[in-house]
Amino acid sequence: MLDNFLNVSFCKFIKKSRNLNMKKALIIVDVQNDFCEGGALAVPGANEVIPYINLLMEENEYDQVILTQDWHPSNHKSFASNNNQKVGEIIMLNGVSQFMWPDHCIQDSYGAEFHKDLNRDSVTHIIQKGKNVEIDSYSGFQDNNHFMKTGLDDFLKYHEIQLLEIVGLALDYCVKFTCLDAVANGYITCLHFNGTRAVNVKPDNGRDSIYEMIQKGVTVLG
Ligand code: VGL
Ligand code: ZN
C-alpha cells in the first residue's frame, strides 16, 4: 500500500520534473534483433517491451532519447565459440568473471540491428558498446573492468540531464548495470518494470536484479 503510494507519487513527480526545469533522458538498452524473439540470445518476452517503449517516446517528455547498441567484433571474447567453451560456462577474462554467451550482436549483422518495430523518430543519440575484443560491456556507461568509458556520461552531463528513465534488454545484465552506473554517476534513476525483461539464466536472476537495484538507489516504476 505504502509502496504503491510512493510509486504513484514518484510518477507524478517525474511528470512535473519539467516544471522544475530538470532535464530528463530516456535510455533504451539493446533492443536489438538478437535479444528479441528468434534472435541468437533471445530474452523471453522481449518483443512485449517494444510497444511500451514506443508509447513512452510518444509522450514526448524527454530532452534526450538514447539507444545503446551491443556491438561486438566477431572475435569477441564473451562468445563461447571464441574460447573453446560451451555457452553458459564462466571463465576469467582479463581479471573479470565472464559468462560465455552464444555469438550475438556482431557488428553490421542483422542480429545487431535495432528491432524494426522500435520507433526511432525521436532518438537523439546512439551509444555502441562491447567493441573491445578483450572485455565485455554490460553497462551503457563503461566496460565491465571499469577501464574505458563509452561517452554516455559525458553526453548526459553536457546536456545537463539529471533524471534518467531506463528500459530495454536484458533486465539482469545490460539494464541492471546501466541502472547501477547511472546511480553511481549521480543521476536520479528510474527503471520502468514494464519496459524490460530478464534473460533468467537462473530463474531468480530478474527478481534478484530488481532487489539489488532498489537497494542501491534505483526507483522501479510500474
Ligand atoms: C547483454 C548478454 C550479453 C544484454 C549483452 O544486452 O543484456 N547480455 N551481451
Ligand atoms: Zn553482448
Task: Provide structural commentary.
By secondary structure, the protein is α/β, with parallel strands linked by helices. The chain has one domain: Rossmann fold (3-Layer(aba) Sandwich). Helices cover 26% and strands 22% of the residues. It is built from 5 helices and 8 strands. Strands 5-2-1-6-7-8 form a 6-stranded parallel beta sheet, with helices on both faces. Strands 3-4 form a two-stranded antiparallel ribbon. Helix 4 links the parallel strand 6 (161-169) and strand 7 (188-197). The two termini are 14 Å apart. The model has no long low-confidence stretch (mean pLDDT 95). It binds pyrazine-2-carboxylic acid and zinc ion. The site of zinc ion has 6 residues, from loops.
- The CATH superfamily is known as Isochorismatase-like
Count of spatially separate domains: 1
> Total number of helical segments?
5
Which segments are poorly predicted (pLDDT under 50) over 5 or more consecutive residues? none
Q: How many DSSP E strands?
A: 8
**Helical proportion?**
25-40%
| Average pLDDT number | 95
Distance between the termini: 14 Å
Ligand names: pyrazine-2-carboxylic acid, zinc ion
Elements, N to C (H/E): HEHEEEEHEHEHE
CATH topology: Rossmann fold
